[in-house]
Amino acid sequence: MTLIRPITGARIPTGWFGQLWDEIMSNRVRGDGRTVAVIRTPTGAVITSINRGGIGGEGPRRGMFTISATETGQFKVQDPNAKLTAGIAQINGTFYTVPTAEFAVSATCYVYVRYTLPTQDEDDPGDKAEIITDAELLQPNEQYAYGLIGRVIVDGEQKTISQDHAPGTMIMWWQGPCWEEEE
């Protein structure tokens, strides 16, 4: 739509303000309700998410490494778009498919992608990624590297999911252990 600007001192044409309103509204950022969500604030528009869900509108917190409750009272980490995997982890530039994990929770726990570092052991060569839970905040060491996905917080009978990793590819970097110099 092209809106003609009134000439100074000339009469404003009938319907001009309606056309102005239509022009302004056509230039507003808005979501489509399925893949892009926009929130209007007093200071402007905020694009809150670009959803992987596509048609059906899975919501802004759905995608790889999504923590959710199951019908049996357990919890799972899964990619809702690929039911057999939790997601893809990129570790030091290499991609790993991480299998879905389901677990029971009785106390607050952290949920991680754990990368087992490569070893020279032929029986257990390492170099794999998997989902684990632990009551502690874990730090990388000479055997494992960790990527925090989130937490399941238990408060009495109430269990709450805190999705700390925004669903999507888990990117981790592991530089190796810090060796102490021998004296």
The low-confidence parts are 51-60
Average pLDDT over all residues: 82
Number of domains: 2
Strand content: 35-45%
How are the strands ordered across the major sheet? 9-8-10-11
Radius of gyration: 25 Å
Helix content percent band = under 10%
> How far apart are the first and last residues' alpha carbons, in Å?
78 Å
Report the total helices.
1
**Tally of extended strands?**
12
**H-E string:** HEEEEEEEEEEEE
Shape annotation: elongated
Structural class, judged by helices and strands?
A: mainly beta
**Main sheet makeup:** 4 strands, antiparallel
Architecture overview:
There is one protein chain. The chain is mainly beta and 183 residues long. It folds into 2 domains: 34-58, no CATH class; 66-172, no CATH class. Helix content is 6%, strand content 40%. Strands 9-8-10-11 form a 4-stranded antiparallel sheet, with no helix packed on it. Strands 3-4-7 form a 3-stranded antiparallel sheet, with no helix packed on it.
Features:
single chain; 183 residues; mainly beta; 3-stranded antiparallel β-sheet; 1 helix; 12 strands
